[in-house]
Specification:
single chain; alpha+beta; 11-stranded antiparallel sheet; 3 helices; globular; disordered N terminus
Length: 206
């Protein structure tokens, strides 16, 4: 009787352990992995939609907590080698065409800031209105997390992150204006969690 009871306990534990994860479980695991992220690197395909023709860019991107970031333009060719480095308040920009560096203080709610996953995480942690769902895009399932962007900016009002369900890696970041129209789209590739990034990466030495 005792051995039979033990077999039933093992059998029940195996069933429970093999039970499919709920939507809440998947959302929790994805958020937990993102919240543990101290740095990341990736390549991004960016589309910025304004009043005219959409602008498309290919860039390399690095981020390190709490607020350091670096962008290097790969395409278009006329901007190739352009570097933008920021610290959450100011940004320094190097343009290879004129071989000059200049600083801008207009960083908060800039389109550059909203291209970074690190700032999405900050916004989602500070927002009281965060929504998570499982949605389908191009016949694949993703975790989506929606949050508001602070500051009541007309063009950068809300954002949505799409996370690969299998690997819990960011796939797409969308930024919407106050009317709900998409303004920025960022597609991630070659994404690396927590790479070692030296401080020199956040200095312009040109």
């Amino acid at each position: 009787m005792r051995s039979r009871r033990l077999l039933w306990i093992v059998f029940i534990l195996l069933i429970v352990g093999c039970a499919p994860k709920t939507e809440e479980d998947l959302l929790y695991e994805a958020q937990k992995k993102l919240n543990k992220m101290e740095s990341y690197s990736c390549q991004v395909e960016i589309t910025v939609k304004g009043n005219k023709k959409p602008e498309k860019y290919t860039m390399k991107q690095w981020f390190k907590k709490p607020n350091k970031y670096r962008l290097e333009v790969i395409q278009p060719k006329d901007l190739q080698g352009k570097i933008t480095i920021g610290n959450g308040k100011n940004a320094w920009i190097y343009h290879p065409g004129i071989k000059q560096v200049w600083m801008t203080e207009e960083f908060l709610n800039s389109k550059e800031q909203n291209m970074f996953l690190g700032y999405f995480l900050r916004n989602s942690l500070n927002s009281e209105e965060v929504q998570g769902n499982i949605e389908t895009l191009e016949q694949k399932e993703y975790i989506t997390i929606d949050t508001e962007i602070p500051g009541n900016h007309v063009y950068y009002h809300k954002e949505r992150l799409w996370i690969n369900l299998k690997h819990a890696e960011p796939y797409l970041l969308e930024v919407f204006d106050i009317k709900g129209e998409k303004r920025i789209e960022v597609k991630y590739s070659n994404f690396q969690y927590n790479p070692k990034i030296e401080e020199e990466m956040f200095l312009i030495t040109k």
